[in-house]
Amino acid sequence: MAFEIKGGRGDAKKVLESLRLFWHAPNIGESRSLVIHPATTTHGQLTKEELVKAGITQGTLRLSIGREDPLDLIEDLHQALATI
C-alpha cells in the first residue's frame, strides 16, 4: 500500500519517524509491518523525471502490512499522521 503525504519529504519524514509499530526498512518478506520512503530508498537512484514517471513523489510512503493487529496498525497510522 502506498500513499502520499501532501507536505512532501519533510512531512513524510515526520510521519515515518512517528510510527511505532511499523519497522522502517525496505525488506520484502518480513512478517512485521514495514514502512519506507521510496524516493530516498528503493528508488533513490532515479532522476526527478524518472520518479514522476514512476508515480513517486517526495511525499510518498509505502507500507507492507504484516502480522500485527490491523486495529493497532490503523491507530499507529492515525497518531503518526496527527504529527503533521
Key words describing this protein structure:
Aspartate Aminotransferase, domain 1; 84 residues; alpha+beta; four-stranded mixed sheet; 35% helix
Describe the structure.
By secondary structure, the protein is an alpha+beta fold. It has one domain (2-81): Aspartate Aminotransferase, domain 1. Helices cover 35% and strands 15% of the residues. It has helices at residues 9-18, 48-54, 70-81; strands spanning 2-4, 23-24, 34-36, 60-64. The radius of gyration is 13 Å and the shape is globular. The two termini are 20 Å apart. 18% of the residues are buried. The mean pLDDT is 93.
Radius of gyration: 13 Å
Number of strands: 4
Low-confidence stretches: none
The CATH superfamily turns out to be Aspartate Aminotransferase, domain 1
Across the major sheet, the strand order is 1-4-3-2
CATH topology value: Aspartate Aminotransferase, domain 1
Mean pLDDT: 93
What portion of residues belong to β-strands? 15-25%
Overall tally of structural domains = 1
**Helix amount, in percent?**
25-40%
CATH class: Alpha Beta
Gross CATH architecture: Alpha-Beta Complex
What is the straight-line distance between the termini? 20 Å
Biggest beta sheet attributes: 4 strands, mixed
Structural class: alpha+beta
Q: Looking at the structure, what is the overall shape?
A: globular
Order of helices and strands: EHEEHEH
Number of alpha- plus pi-helical segments? 3
